[in-house]
């Protein structure tokens, strides 16, 4: 047992100051024009889901504008080919609640969207979100419940967009090394890495 564990809302709230007016006012229940501009500029977001198999948090990316704003309460997220685990999609079948975090390179504020999602193969949406002539496998349509921007502190502390931060990747394991380094792996890491760039370029869409 941790004698310092926080186990109540009152105990938790005692550690922090009351949120300021800006922190409260920025949350709305629809995609207002200023928030829409952030989504339309974003080439990358992270999706959090929950289902029978547990929690999942995974990245999605494409050229800016790939997330389609259908109206001020709905956005469409194309689901491209990947590793075919489809953990997020399985979770959405079990539990439609979803959390999204949108990032724009060079900008330290992020945009948070919470809502409920459905998975569709609507031909019009598949065509609308096609990339290089190839439609996605399916489209996730999110009905927005809350949306607000997150202040810049986290990214500023991380120095995420600082060019010098690129040096942090030096010496980290390659994809092949990670696959070869997990227990009971029979994957040749060097061979996996050798064809990785070509394989990824060929299977992006």
TrEMBL record:
Query: What single Pfam family name could you report for this chain, choosing any that match?
Result: PNPOx_N
Which intervals hold domain Pyridoxamine 5'-phosphate oxidase N-terminal? 34-151
Classification via InterPro entries: Pyridox_Oxase_FMN-dep, Pyridox_Oxase_N, Split_barrel_FMN-bd
The molecule here is called: Pyridoxamine 5'-phosphate oxidase family protein
Tell me which species this is from. Guyparkeria halophila
Lineage, please? Bacteria, Pseudomonadati, Pseudomonadota, Gammaproteobacteria, Chromatiales
């Amino acid at each position: 047992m941790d004698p310092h564990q926080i186990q109540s809302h009152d105990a938790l709230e005692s550690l922090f100051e009351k949120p300021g007016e800006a922190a409260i006012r920025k949350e709305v229940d629809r995609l207002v024009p200023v928030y829409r501009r952030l989504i339309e500029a974003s080439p990358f977001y992270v999706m959090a889901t929950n289902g029978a198999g547990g929690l999942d948090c995974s990245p999605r990316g494409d050229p800016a504008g790939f997330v389609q704003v259908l109206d001020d309460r709905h956005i469409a997220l194309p689901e491209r080919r990947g590793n075919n685990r489809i953990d997020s999609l399985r979770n959405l079948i079990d539990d439609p609640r979803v959390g999204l975090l949108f990032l724009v390179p060079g900008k330290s504020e992020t945009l948070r969207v919470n809502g409920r999602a459905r998975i569709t193969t609507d031909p019009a949406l598949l065509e609308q979100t096609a990339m290089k002539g190839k439609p996605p496998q399916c489209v996730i349509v999110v009905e927005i419940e809350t949306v607000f921007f997150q202040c810049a502190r986290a990214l500023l502390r991380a120095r995420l967009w600082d060019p010098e931060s690129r040096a942090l990747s030096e010496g980290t394991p390659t994809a092949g090394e990670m696959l070869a380094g997990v227990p009971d792996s029979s994957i040749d890491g060097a061979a996996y890495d050798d064809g990785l760039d070509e394989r990824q370029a060929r299977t992006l869409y």
